[in-house]
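Researcher: We plan to redesign the surface later, but first we want a full-length starting point. Tokens attached.
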């Protein structure tokens, strides 16, 4: 995840150097002639790897981040570095953003030196892959669609468009180019952007209109948060009743309790290799990020008047986990630090 983002002034920055499968149809990650130059803003753990895969795919990439070191890494491999989001937009056919929160995304698009500065734009398409609330995605989509294009070409682009396209898969998938994109916005824009998505990932799922990609991501992460609590609670109870976590995991994974939190991301140290629980919960998906996503889900549920008691309980647990000093540990540490589960010997 990118570092906390604010639009920097030019003075300060001058110091820095499921694929939608149709019958008989196949996609390849080839450079789209519509989008030869790609702007990328937000070069954190996810964004840096996504931008690097675009470069490997043959796109010309212009980048921006408030982290000078992140900018220099891309300058060293020949990417254009820009001092403001406005300059990225002026140099790009399409701009991708990967930022920490809704407020950062909104500032990067609409703030001083922002992507939409002036309202008469070069980019035909903007793609936001940040995990933010659907309401902000929809608001930005409307703002972008009210802008104009500097150059009208002989194609279907009459005005700029925004796709909300958050991802699933984490840092390892970003590195390997195997992310899944959940995409909201116009289907026409989605189809045009597909070569870009497949340069950074292996699956795309078109979720419908503006904001639906963000909604899908929040619902996915909510289900993951709750399932991890259920698996952790059950394994801790099993230990208290005299059943080893390894034995109970075998039961889960050959029975109806099987899920990703049990068979691919087990929270009990000593049960599974290569997951955060095997390395003192370092790496992975930080508890503070899960808490943020659950908070977004809780707020969204409240706005639409839906009762979500499990969401409220998960919100309390992950918030407490962070307040107790475990915010940078992987969210599966809830097994140890909330349920007081034991290591498998």
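Model: Full-length starting sequence:
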């Amino acid at each position: 995840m990118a570092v906390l983002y604010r639009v920097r002034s030019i003075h300060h920055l001058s110091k820095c150097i499921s694929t939608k499968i149709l019958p008989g149809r196949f996609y390849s990650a080839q450079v789209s002639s519509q989008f030869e130059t790609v702007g990328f803003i937000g070069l954190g753990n996810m964004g840096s790897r996504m931008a690097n895969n675009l470069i490997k795919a043959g796109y010309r990439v212009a980048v921006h981040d408030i982290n000078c070191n992140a900018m220099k890494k891309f300058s060293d491999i020949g990417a254009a570095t820009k001092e403001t989001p406005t300059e990225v937009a002026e140099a790009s056919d399409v701009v991708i953003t990967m930022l920490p929160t809704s407020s950062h995304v909104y500032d990067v698009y609409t703030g001083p030196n922002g992507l939409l500065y002036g309202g008469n734009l070069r980019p035909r398409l903007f793609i936001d892959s940040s995990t933010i609330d659907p309401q902000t995605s929809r608001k930005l989509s409307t703002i972008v669609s009210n802008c104009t294009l500097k150059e009208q070409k002989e194609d279907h682009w009459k005005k700029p468009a925004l796709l909300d396209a958050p991802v699933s898969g984490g840092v390892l998938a970003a590195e390997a180019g195997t992310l899944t994109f959940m995409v909201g916005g116009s289907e026409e824009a989605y189809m045009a952007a597909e070569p870009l998505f497949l340069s950074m990932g292996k699956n795309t799922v078109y979720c419908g209109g503006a904001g639906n990609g963000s909604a899908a991501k929040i619902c996915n992460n909510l289900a993951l948060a709750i399932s991890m609590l259920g698996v952790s609670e059950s394994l801790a109870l099993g230990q208290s009743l005299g059943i080893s976590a390894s034995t109970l995991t075998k039961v889960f994974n050959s029975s109806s309790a099987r899920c990703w939190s049990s068979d691919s991301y087990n929270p009990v140290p000593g049960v599974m290799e290569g997951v955060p629980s095997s390395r003192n919960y370092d790496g992975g998906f930080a508890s503070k990020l899960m808490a943020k996503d659950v908070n977004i889900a809780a707020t969204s549920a409240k706005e639409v008047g839906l009762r979500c008691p499990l969401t409220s309980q998960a919100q309390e647990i992950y918030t407490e986990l962070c307040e107790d000093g475990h915010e940078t540990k992987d969210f599966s540490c809830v097994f140890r630090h909330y349920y007081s589960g034991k290591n498998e010997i």
